Amino acid sequence: MSDAPLAGPFPLEIAEPLRSLLPGLRERFHREGWWTSTTFASRAAELAREDPDRPVLGDDVETMTRRELAERAARLATALAAAGVPHGSVIGLQMANSAKYAVANLACELAGLVWVNLSRAYGRHEMTDILGHLGATALLTSEPAAVEPLRAELPALRVLVAVDTPAPVGWLAYDELVVGPADPAVIASRHLGGDDVYSIALSSGTTSARPKEAMRSVNSMYSALSIMNDDLGVGGDDRILVLAPQTGGTGYSYSVAFPMITGARADVTELPVGDELVARIRELRPTVLVAVPTQMARLLDAAGGDRAMWSALRLIINSGAPLLGEVAARAEEECGCPIVSVYGATDGLVPVMASPGEPPEVRHASVGRVIAGHQLRIVDDAGNDVAPGETGEILGFGPGMAFGYVDNPAEMARAWDTDGWWHSGDLGVLDATGHLRVVGRKKEMILRGGVNISPLEIEELLGRHPDVVEVAVVPVVHPDLLEQACAVVVPRAGTTPTLPELCAFLSNEGLAKFKLPEHLVLRDELPRTAAQKIDKLTLVREVNEAGAA
Length: 549
What we know:
Strand order of the largest sheet: 2-1-11-10-12-13-14-15-16
Number of strands: 25
CATH class of the largest domain: Alpha Beta
CATH topology of the largest domain: Rossmann fold
Number of helices: 18
């Protein structure tokens, strides 16, 4: 086994402290069986050989079989190589939810390209910042009109592919690239292996003004999701409906990676929550539903209590942000199946999750236990392990973690220590059974008059209020106290909760008076990162610029 860093040209260099540790980690994870030679693309080819005509992906336009997926990915990989996209370089994927996204994703692996997901909501600043910093050489996008004016600022971007829209002059058209011949020799000379960097995951978090670009190997993602599925039990007979955007971590994991790992079928959609989506769910009869919290709450309202539409559903997977207690209880009661929340991070990804078989009072009181092959520690400010029941920073280690940030030594030094443990920045409590409860962020505390207030503590309590669908608590600047707490609430349809009402509720829940929010902002939705986490950096800026009420 090579001692070289994971594959990829500059700037995809593994920095210290992980660079020195990587050879030993790689040998350990292979020896223990967590890492193998299987990749997502090799698994797609295997599934196509086993049952070529079995549907594997569906969207609003088409249903794709296993054979069609594998063949189109090979053709696209060949076409990208022929177009001059350098082996080992970065390619951006900015696409709508569709089967075409999965084709592009697997094609990157076959062509030896490292993909980065880009939200279609990104503007000029985000696109030039991310693609420029990564030295991206190619982009597949459904937004060519927005990208065309940026070409002068991105000189490395040599191949542009238009998806689901006419190709401007000088661009290639996706639909033409997937009908040409595949060249097995080209793929054999370029395809990525299990230990290679295959994707860049963007993480905004709270410690950096610009996105942190975390590098993942095929094995790190494949192993983490495979271990998770040992508890979830998704199999070839399952039909997964994914509502989250595929260009976020949740959407990608369950619409592309999970079908390859499990043989299940996945369906994705661009339909907003409403009557059309309800009709689609009745038609598809999914057995597994994957959604972010706001989607889940709105979907329950749109369904109007119709339990028949959920008759085939056996599992709901919530990811991206905590699902508030009131919504979780309602979903389980109306859908007749358990909800499993997954705690992890785009950059660290040491997953913690509850088992579907655990009782509701256990699943709702914590985010679960760390998955097999991974380890958690809760430490104090000096790095010492704390006793069960005590609060400290959550540290993680295991084969599913990322391998550092692109060209960002300061963040690398903050996030990983010299023993290879990833420092989350989250505060948590482990109980005697190993269940984790997340209680806040080290750097997200609100400092009011010299006293720290945990936003997450307030958020969890407000989540029990029947009129609160989603909530984020952020600081607003105060001339004397330094900061005050502002609750930004997405209310249940038809309700208008007030600040006195919510404060009275929090007081009844036992929250100390000094922790009560002093401002309230009602919004239709909360801003989100590409990974579908609440974008608190944006929210803090918007609330303070607008002047909280």
